[in-house]
TrEMBL record:
InterPro entries for the chain: GH (IPR017853), Glyco_hydro_17 (IPR000490), Glyco_hydro_17_plant (IPR044965), X8 (IPR012946)
Reactions performed catalytically: Hydrolysis of (1->3)-beta-D-glucosidic linkages in (1->3)-beta-D-glucans
Gene: LOC105123777
Residue stretches making up the X8 domain: 360-445
Membrane topology according to the record: Lipid-anchor; GPI-anchor
Top enzyme category: hydrolase
One term of GO molecular function: glucan endo-1,3-beta-D-glucosidase activity
Species of the source: Populus euphratica
Family matches, as Pfam families: Glyco_hydro_17, X8
One of the record's GO cellular component terms: plasma membrane
Entry keyword set: Cell membrane, Disulfide bond, Glycoprotein, Glycosidase, GPI-anchor, Hydrolase, Lipoprotein, Membrane, Plant defense, Signal, Transmembrane, Transmembrane helix
SUPFAM superfamilies (UniProt xref): (Trans)glycosidases
Location(s) in or outside the cell: Cell membrane
GO biological process: carbohydrate metabolic process; defense response
Name used for this protein in its record: glucan endo-1,3-beta-D-glucosidase
Amino acid sequence: MALLLLLFFLTVPVVSADDDDAFIGVNIGTAVSDMPSPTQVVALLKAQNIRHVRLYDADRAMLRALANTGIRVTVSVPNEQLLGIGQSNATAANWVARNVIAHVPATNITAIAVGSEILTTLPNAAPVLVSALKFIHSALVASNLDGQIKVSTPQSSSIILDSFPPSQAFFNRSWDPVMVPLLKFLQSTGSYFMLNVYPYYDYMQSNGVIPLDYALFRPLPPNKEAVDANTLLHYTNVFDAIVDAAYFSMSYLNFTKIPIFVTESGWPSKGDSSEPDATLDNANTYNSNLIRHVLNNTGTPKHPRIVVSTYIYELYNEDLRPGPVSEKNWGLFDASGMPVYTLHLTGAGTLLANDTTNQTFCVAKEGADPKMLQAALDWACGPGKVDCSFLLQGQPCYEPDNVVAHSTYAFNAYFQKMAKSPGTCDFKGAATITTSDPSHDSCIFPGSAGRNGTFPNTTSLAPSSNSSTSGCHSIYFYGAGSVTTSVIIGVLLMSVVCL
């Protein structure tokens, strides 16, 4: 689960791993029953303007698909391969030759993550962890790639003890025999400390001590902010507190010049009965606020204005992952490439097309029951207060004259009217969100830039208080035998309902 952070003490010169601007990347897990092909994955990345990814392995097909895209790639040594690489320089060199050298420069590999959370999940491999990093790095040096490819290893934030206040945090001392040489290696090679940060788990394990708003980056009144009594710094979110705790922990071991990359962070969109806060709204809120926090270069209270680059966990929902329901629901997209929710990213530029600053639409779900579509269409054009006059005969969106096309228009008009709020594209399961513009011919859908690059007058798409039809909305009925017709009378009946 992945996020990148670049943070430094104010006395340390700023060193950026990717120019001077913060960026958002994503992790790509593959525990998906209907995993898209590498070509499909890359197509989604391009469509969403995602320029940084982390792979949990070094899959050849995926690396070939990423070739010549310019997308920056972090590849990984899987945990099960760590023991072999950590005990053999030759094995490490072969791994680099096969998984890195064979793909650069066409594929823009910029980092190698050696294992993942080894100290907490695979402690028997901990004694060879630093050797594995050194062997991998030596192979890069031999190929003159050490200047462009950094080597590190992601750690769980649970290795930090007494993480609040951050100024008193320190690493679990039992890992000093590994942590000290690891930090020496990172410092000597100009690499960074990879850290996985999950405020969701900190919140869940706090038994109510951590407020939900504090975990979700929601604004807090000053008297509710957490204050480090030693530094008097105010912390408005869990994420910043954990990152600063890691910096203080490194400082405690006399390492003050190593930037932090948070290689995993996110929030699940669904959970079981014991996970009531794993919801679409909370996942949307957390990731939207995290992205905004990263891209505005806020930094942390201890390190303001220092870029914080982040990999979100994760691109797809992984339905094959074991464990509670939440483990399967961290993705931004489902396997078909549809957004799980619509991010609120005002001011985030062109990143992620499934945000409210870019084009997303609500359409009739493929295979939906026509009767459900008809009922939902009636609701949207009635109680939903959508102006369905564009669907009348002779109007731009009358053709094709069927319940799927007309309900798609009505669903999307309601979705756009409600500012794409979570839950407004459902219609009892008959609708779904897409990034593909459903506009056609002269029928330009609300939310579309249109063929001429301008948006339609969306204010005219909702009932107007000055309209002669104010409070009256059309309900459309389609014949059971056929949903297509060239006439309104008979097969398409319009009745007026005044609300």
